[in-house]
Design goal:
Elements (H helix, E strand, L loop, with lengths): L1 E2 L6 E6 L3 E3 L6 E6 L5 E3 L6 E3 L6 E3 L6 E3 L6 E3 L6 E3 L6 E3 L6 E3 L6 E3 L6 E3 L6 E3 L6 E3 L6 E3 L6 E3 L6 E3 L6 E3 L1
Parallel strand pairs: 1-3, 2-4, 3-5, 4-6, 5-7, 6-8, 7-9, 8-10, 9-11, 10-12, 11-13, 12-14, 13-15, 14-16, 15-17, 16-18, 17-19, 18-20
């Protein structure tokens, strides 16, 4: 386990299953090499976290964070702030959080949840689930058989290539098949 403090820290996991805690400040967290499963916690601040290979868990917490799952079946949680989440290769689970977030699923069957505020969700390749949550969201399934749920708000839903299911919600939504 590696712990940062109140400054802007850079933590590198190296080989093995690692837990990295950035703490306060704008931190850079890099998970371990190989197929080990890492846990990266950004803490407060505008953090960058890269999971690497393995099935990793990345948490941004407060701040405008960039979370990159890379390879493996990863779980990414943006938290409070305008976050950018990239699932990478694998069947990933992405939660944006309570601000304006951008989520990219990457290759694989991914599940993306925008939650609150106006979010952009892109499934990319694979059979994906995209759930915009509340507010006015922009959802694009990309290639594959996708399920897009706009939720409340005036949403834009783009199915992309594949036999997709698009569900708007209670407000004025725009559909492109």
């Amino acid at each position: 386990m590696l712990n940062g403090f109140n400054g802007n820290d850079t933590l590198n996991g190296g080989l093995g299953a690692d837990t990295l805690n950035g703490g306060d400040g704008d931190d850079v967290l890099v998970g371990g090499l190989g197929l080990f499963n890492d846990v990266l916690n950004g803490g407060n601040g505008d953090d960058i976290a890269n999971g690497g290979d393995g099935n990793d868990i990345l948490r941004g917490d407060d701040g405008n964070d960039t979370l990159n799952g890379d390879a493996g079946n990863d779980r990414l949680f943006g938290g409070v702030g305008d976050d950018l989440l990239n699932g990478g290769i694998g069947a990933d689970l992405l939660y944006g959080g309570s601000s304006v977030d951008t989520l990219y699923g990457g290759a694989g069957a991914d599940s993306l949840y925008g939650e609150a505020e106006d979010d952009f969700l892109y499934g990319d390749a694979g059979n994906d689930l995209l759930d915009g949550g509340t507010s006015n969201d922009d959802l694009d399934g990309g290639a594959g058989i996708d399920n897009l749920l706009g939720g409340s708000g005036n949403d834009i839903l783009v199915g992309g290539a594949g036999n997709d299911v698009l569900t708007g919600g209670g407000d004025a939504d725009y559909f492109t098949f």
